[in-house]
Amino acid sequence: MHKTYSLRNARTPTAAQLQNPPPPTASTRGKFFGKGGIAFAFRRNAAGAMGPDLSRKLSQLVKIEKNVLRAMETAANERREAATQLSLWGLENDDDVSDITDKLGVLVYEMSELDDQFIDRYDQYRLTMKSVRDIENSVQPSRDRKDKVADRIAFMRYKEPDNVQKIEVLEQELVRAEAESLVAEAQLSNITRSKLKAAFNYQFESMIEHSEKVALIAGYGKALLELLDDSPVTPGETRPAYDGYEASKQIIIDAEAALNEWTLDYAQVKPTLSFKQEDYADYESESDSDIERAHAQGEPHEEEQHGEDGDLWNNEEGAPVHAQTTTTTTTEQTTVAV
Amino acid sequence: MHKTYSLRNARTPTAAQLQNPPPPTASTRGKFFGKGGIAFAFRRNAAGAMGPDLSRKLSQLVKIEKNVLRAMETAANERREAATQLSLWGLENDDDVSDITDKLGVLVYEMSELDDQFIDRYDQYRLTMKSVRDIENSVQPSRDRKDKVADRIAFMRYKEPDNVQKIEVLEQELVRAEAESLVAEAQLSNITRSKLKAAFNYQFESMIEHSEKVALIAGYGKALLELLDDSPVTPGETRPAYDGYEASKQIIIDAEAALNEWTLDYAQVKPTLSFKQEDYADYESESDSDIERAHAQGEPHEEEQHGEDGDLWNNEEGAPVHAQTTTTTTTEQTTVAV
């Protein structure tokens, strides 16, 4: 990640980036590839060119996300074909290679099915962002009307300063337009925030589900590979007969069961947040503000947080303090999380 | 996954699939999309058309994997653009939306960087499979030569059965060709297995790394979203000033640290293998064969296995038995894992 922690500023390479050379670049990567063709470029460039200014940037984002979806879809479809091809190739080989490539194909196929599910969910995120764009579109006219009335008043004052009656009428119109605009801006602000939050929460949750499931399948795939006898044979020697059919089938059954059981509560990969106290000394006066922050942020693994910040809990009362702090959290949540 | 646990047979829908309707299909999915254009189709159809029969299926697989790579690359590039666009859109909004979209952009950008790393590694897998194809290519001539000599002997026996000298020369040639072919087939068998195992182990490991890192970033993204104040305001009301700059920066720093610390040993998502004893009663006579199987398969979390199968370890000696069993495992590994 960047030194600057922002995409808007120029990026400087970190010392680690300079020290550790990256892995060899894929042979398929190049200047001409990865651009996605004419349709992708058209969508990207034409987006927002016709609509109001306000929603132009978000229109482009929605179109780029459509490109992302299309590319992911192609990848999923190709991977599904690769799974089938792997299984077909294995069929011509010995029993063990045949069985294991077939089962590997099943796992890879399942991954592309998961990709498809993820694509459907990613589309929900995109549609939510699209509805923000629609709100932006609908707010634009009320802004325009207000500006237009204000312009006309300025024009009248300069051109016909004596036409008080006309100017008064226009000023009343301006008040009405301002009121309408005020409501529209508040709606825009509210809806943008709630939709943005909902859209990205949904995206991240489906990403967590997809990633963990893929990692699970990959783990079972590694177990499957252990069934493959890769000890070298001398010419003329025959390999011992393959008896892993039951084991390989059991691995697929286990993988299937693990995928079916998976829920978001079961997620293994958890972020650990370290809110250093000195960073917030200016904002909060209480000593255990960072723990409350973790609570306010819906931080899911309280135990670890308590473990890390255990020194803050070195109190004679122990657990009761915890209970008390969590109740105060709800009231202070608004000030912390704003 | 399929009832049949094989890609080669027809798939029957499970009861769960019939009961739970899938999520709404993405609006971008359709008959015409996700095929990847002319270049993709050409690569898929032309692969292996020129080379020897033996390597045709694997040639196609390698080409399809190239399509997978290209599509993933497009997706990563588009996602990188989406991250930049998200940050640009946020810039026009209020302080909190601006800061949080910028930081979200940083996280999404980092995901596409991870995608790039994964693509480079996936290419290594592809190149390893490609080297298997090359071995298949090189084995084909020795098979052909053997067949050709055998054909010529049959032809001579039918056409000139009295030309014993010529037939003898050919039979000696056949013995040489068979010896060469025997070596070639052994090489093919050895190299196919070791490369297949190495390639998929590498792919699955890089998949685990990629997935867990993406899940980590998504977790930090969810924490970031909690900083966004989405409580509705009434028209004319101003929102409290945003003071989350330090917190959002800290989340990015934490995410960066977590990504840098991540190693494969640290992986959270582990498969749980259940090798039921009754399935193997026919194959093994010993009562604790399933545990040895788990050992032989490099099952990474011994504690859980021991926990589950604790009753098998109810022995007066306890730990010494464990030590003894693990040493016998190495000798029995070949029979178990073959």
Describe the structure.
The structure is a homodimer of 338-residue chains. Chain A has a domain of 227 residues: Arfaptin homology (AH) domain/BAR domain (Substrate Binding Domain Of Dnak, Chain:A, Domain 2). Chain A is elongated. By secondary structure, chain A is mostly helical. In chain A, helix 8 packs across helix 10. The C terminus of chain A is likely disordered. Chain A is 69% helix and 0% strand. Chain A contains 10 helices and no strands. The longest helix of chain A has 65 residues. Chains A and B meet through helix 2, helix 3, helix 4, helix 5 and helix 6 of A and helix 2, helix 3, helix 4, helix 5 and helix 6 of B. Chains A, B: Keywords: Phosphoprotein. Chains A, B: One of its GO terms (molecular function) is lipid binding. Chains A, B: This is Sphingolipid long chain base-responsive protein PIL1.
Oligomer: homodimer
| Order of helix and strand elements from N to C terminus of chain A | HHHHHHHHHH
State the helix count of chain A: 10
Bulk shape of chain A: elongated
Number of beta strands of chain A: 0
Low-pLDDT ranges of chain A: 276-338
Radius of gyration of chain A: 30 Å
Q: Helix- and strand-based class of chain A? A: mainly alpha
Q: Superfamily at the CATH H level of the domain at 33-230 and 242-270 in chain A?
A: Arfaptin homology (AH) domain/BAR domain
Helix content of chain A: 55-70%
Largest sheet of chain A: none
**Range of strand content of chain A:** under 5%
- At the fold tier of CATH, the topology name of the domain at 33-230 and 242-270 in chain A is Substrate Binding Domain Of Dnak, Chain:A, Domain 2
- The CATH class label of the domain at 33-230 and 242-270 in chain A is Mainly Alpha
